[in-house]
């Protein structure tokens, strides 16, 4: 079925857009056509496109006020939005006009798009999910604000020096950001410290310090420009930026101390919290953006609706993980202290307004704060948390909870150092708590929230994550998108679940060959990029085996590397076999203070250095660690991947969204039954995914039954040899003991089950080799993956949130 061309919806012809861009270039960039450089045209193009977006933005806002509808407010520490030019052009339906307008001046739109820096507003899956959700909210015509922090330097820019990760500031704002609008009228004083006093019948918090939060807005364009929503990020400034008397007295640093203190709040994403000063900065940072957001929400509601009691009818506040959990206490403070509600009445309003998404089963990732620190920084909020806790614990006692259950439910951790449990606060202060994959949600009920679930058995629900198909298929893989359109029409562009129509054509050899041609073209493009940036030559006809994600022990890049060493050894030991040529591609950042994760990066580079220089393996194995993994790199790598590594220890990955992006682009998944892999398997079919390893139940049982990893290692020749090679310094001759501790951890404990799953993983990889040698069968499986993962669209996820939690659809 031939596809019809999509109508452009931008409203301007190519010649009109040409005139618009030139006018912007002259009057707002200050250049004429002859003097303008590429970066001038880039800025002019964004500003011209922005003019069209602004009109749609204003129209969306007016329509929301006219209709008097309910808004969604999405609070997140991260919004990994990536580059916006291509995304906005595509969603506004203006790509062809811009291409034609710029080509008239000898310019290539694709080259201008490369000039845009990735916005350093996030790190991993949490932030990218928030970005996908914001785009889907606009696509589904749901009024929404995203709230976060305008980080000046992000987490860090990763450079690899001699195989080691080096953290550098991400200077994405060095030349300004043409997408954003500062809103000076939306500024709020955020207090810290001080004391709480009674003033008659009222309680008044007198902070010792204030920081001013000012909104900076970025428009978020939905598909076909249906709606433009707002991403509102907060920047910080002191009330008194310069103490002139101190400056004139020669104390230049002291005169600027408040400026530095305020700006530190928005300087870096996730400052290291291994020191007391780092912990304080993290807590201040989280309260800063959360308090500004809650104050903005309440101000808007009272301004237009008058009565704070009707907040749940007009506002749905979604907390993305535990970082904004203090929103519960801040909303209570505003209602009780400033709007005069009785505590119990305010508590009911709070619970009906707030909902909370949990993203982890790792206890250490469920934030807690030392009670003395929390009480010193936020004394009034501590009082409110104690008041909430007394109600919850009385309720638990009345329900017949045991002392052990009450201790687990309490908002205050009493064993050892007393700490405030932010996940428990979010749970009790919300009417809905959702997991992000079916397995994750069930494990939440059984593990981290077992006692809270027993007390409130109707609150936990599942909302399996999704990704926006606009960025992760249409924009990053236009060749594949065209092939799909030619095969089944363009309905899937508006509804990703219509991709299922492709399943009937899975065994069509002509279609399979066309998709294979696109895949090879994407691999050639990635190989050229890696050759240009890293000097490593890759064979595009090899199997591209990819693991790109945050570096963490539970994600098991180490398992992949151990198997890589075993494969390297096998290729050298058995040159007579017909080995499948394979390129192992790794990418991801390790938290600056995470020693083992940084060692894994070094190990990947050490293995790459040795393997890539070894003529005995020829072109059969290459290893590449791509530095500074970000959204733009993902958009290059994912369309080129043949095999998607989703190999986390079962029961530890909440969902994952990379697994969805890879499958949508025709890669086969090798993975454990963890996170959303379980549901991907259910959708694509057992024969179109490669599953290995222990289940979550088996992992738990092994840990409980006294698992002996040394015995497993000694029983596996390949594993034992690979571990011995790494530990003894074969890949680190400059420092033979470099990996002794890392590998020793597998022998002694193997908490992440690398040894336990190795043989199963290695066998699965050899089954991948066999499948690769059947090109027709591989293509059929790839098509079935593409066809059956449309359900994992963030549009579907957001529609479920909207109907079940927010009640806005």
UniProtKB/TrEMBL annotation:
GO terms for cellular component: cytoplasm. InterPro entries: Glycg_phsphrylas, Glyco_trans_35, Pyridoxal_P_attach_site. One of its GO terms (molecular function) is glycogen phosphorylase activity. It is an enzyme of class 2 (transferase). Keywords: Allosteric enzyme, Carbohydrate metabolism, Cytoplasm, Glycosyltransferase, Pyridoxal phosphate, Transferase. The keyword Membrane does not apply. It is found in: Cytoplasm. Pfam families: Phosphorylase. Its cofactor is pyridoxal 5'-phosphate. SUPFAM superfamilies: UDP-Glycosyltransferase/glycogen phosphorylase. It catalyses: [(1->4)-alpha-D-glucosyl](n) + phosphate = [(1->4)-alpha-D-glucosyl](n-1) + alpha-D-glucose 1-phosphate. One of its GO terms (biological process) is glycogen catabolic process. Its EC number is 2.4.1.1. The modification N6-(pyridoxal phosphate)lysine is found at residue 661. Allosteric enzyme that catalyzes the rate-limiting step in glycogen catabolism, the phosphorolytic cleavage of glycogen to produce glucose-1-phosphate, and plays a central role in maintaining cellular and organismal glucose homeostasis. Belongs to the glycogen phosphorylase family. This is Alpha-1,4 glucan phosphorylase. It comes from Novosphingobium colocasiae. The gene is glgP.
């Amino acid at each position: 079925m031939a596809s019809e061309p999509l109508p452009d919806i931008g409203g301007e012809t190519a010649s009109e857009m040409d005139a618009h861009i030139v006018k912007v270039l002259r009057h707002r960039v200050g250049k004429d056509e002859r003097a303008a450089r590429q970066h001038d045209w880039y800025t002019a193009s964004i500003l011209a496109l922005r003019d069209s977006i602004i009109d749609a933005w204003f129209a969306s806002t007016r329509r929301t006020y006219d209709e008097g509808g309910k808004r969604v407010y999405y609070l997140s520490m991260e919004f990994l939005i990536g580059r916006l030019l291509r995304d906005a052009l595509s969603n506004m339906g203006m790509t062809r006009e811009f291409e034609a307008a710029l080509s008239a001046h000898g310019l290539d739109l694709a080259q201008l798009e490369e000039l845009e820096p990735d916005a350093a507003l996030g790190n991993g899956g949490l932030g990218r999910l928030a970005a996908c959700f914001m785009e889907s909210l606009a696509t589904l015509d749901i009024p929404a604000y995203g709230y976060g922090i305008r980080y000046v330097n992000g987490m860090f820019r990763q450079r690899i020096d001699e195989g080691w990760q080096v953290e550098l500031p991400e200077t994405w704002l060095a030349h300004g950001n043409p997408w954003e609008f500062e809103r000076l009228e939306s500024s709020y004083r955020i207090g810290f410290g001080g004391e709480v006093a009674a003033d008659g019948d009222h309680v008044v918090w007198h902070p010792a310090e204030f920081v001013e939060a000012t909104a900076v807005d970025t428009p978020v364009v939905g598909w076909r420009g249906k709606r433009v929503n707002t991403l509102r990020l907060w920047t910080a400034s002191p009330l008194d930026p310069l103490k002139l008397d101190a400056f004139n007295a020669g104390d230049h640093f002291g005169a600027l101390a408040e400026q530095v203190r305020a700006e530190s709040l928005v300087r870096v994403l996730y400052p290291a919290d291994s020191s007391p000063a780092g912990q304080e900065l993290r807590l201040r940072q989280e309260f800063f953006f959360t308090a500004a957001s809650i104050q903005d929400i309440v101000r808007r509601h009272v301004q237009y609706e008058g009565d704070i009691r009707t907040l749940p009818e007009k506002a749905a506040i979604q907390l993305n993980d535990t970082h904004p959990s203090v929103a519960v206490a801040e909303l209570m403070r505003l209602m009780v202290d400033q709007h005069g509600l009785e505590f119990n009445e305010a508590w009911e309003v709070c619970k009906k307004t707030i909902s909370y998404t949990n993203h982890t089963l790792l206890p250490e990732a469920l934030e807690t704060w030392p009670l003395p620190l929390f009480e010193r920084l936020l004394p009034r909020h501590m009082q409110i948390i104690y008041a909430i806790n007394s109600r919850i614990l009385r309720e638990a006692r009345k329900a017949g909870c045991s002392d052990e259950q009450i201790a687990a439910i309490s908002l205050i951790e009493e064993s050892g150092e007393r700490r405030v449990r932010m996940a428990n606060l979010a749970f009790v202060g919300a009417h809905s708590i959702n997991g992000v994959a079916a397995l994750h949600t069930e494990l939440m009920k059984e593990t981290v929230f077992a006692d809270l679930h027993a007390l409130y058995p109707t609150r936990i629900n599942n909302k399996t994550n999704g990704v926006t198909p606009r960025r992760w298929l249409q924009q990053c893989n236009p060749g594949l998108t065209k092939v799909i359109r030619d095969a089944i029409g363009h309905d899937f562009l508006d509804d990703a679940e219509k991709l299922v129509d492709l399943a009937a054509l899975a065994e069509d050899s002509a279609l399979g060959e066309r998709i294979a041609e696109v895949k090879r073209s994407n691999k050639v493009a990635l190989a050229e990029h890696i050759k240009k940036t890293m000097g490593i030559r890759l064979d595009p006809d090899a199997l591209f085996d990819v693991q790109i994600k945050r570096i963490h022990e539970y994600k098991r890049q180490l398992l992949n590397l151990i198997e890589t060493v075993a494969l390297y050894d096998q290729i050298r030991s058995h040159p007579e076999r017909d080995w499948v040529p394979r390129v192992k591609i790794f990418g991801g950042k390790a938290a600056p203070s995470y020693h083992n994760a940084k060692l894994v990066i070094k190990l990947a580079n050490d293995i790459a250095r040795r393997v890539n220089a070894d003529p005995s393996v020829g072109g059969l194995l290459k290893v590449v660690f791509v530095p500074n993994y970000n959204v733009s790199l993902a958009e290059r790598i994912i369309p080129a991947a043949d095999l998607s590594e989703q190999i986390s220890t079962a029961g530890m990955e909440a969902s994952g969204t990379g697994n969805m992006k890879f499958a949508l682009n025709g890669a086969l998944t090798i993975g454990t039954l963890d996170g959303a892999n379980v549901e991907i398997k259910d959708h694509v079919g057992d024969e179109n995914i490669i599953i290995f390893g222990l289940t979550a139940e088996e992992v738990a049982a092994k840990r409980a039954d006294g698992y002996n990893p040394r015995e497993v290692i000694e029983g596996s020749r390949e594993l034992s040899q690979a571990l011995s090679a790494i530990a003894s310094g074969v890949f680190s001759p400059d420092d033979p003991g470099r990996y002794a501790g890392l590998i020793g951890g597998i022998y002694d404990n193997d908490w992440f089950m690398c040894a336990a799953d190795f043989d199963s993983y290695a066998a699965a990889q050899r089954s991948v080799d066999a499948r690769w040698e059947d090109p027709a069968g591989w293509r059929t499986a790839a098509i079935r993956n593409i066809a059956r993962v449309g359900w994992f669209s963030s549009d579907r996820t957001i529609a479920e949130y909207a109907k079940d939690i927010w009640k806005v659809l």
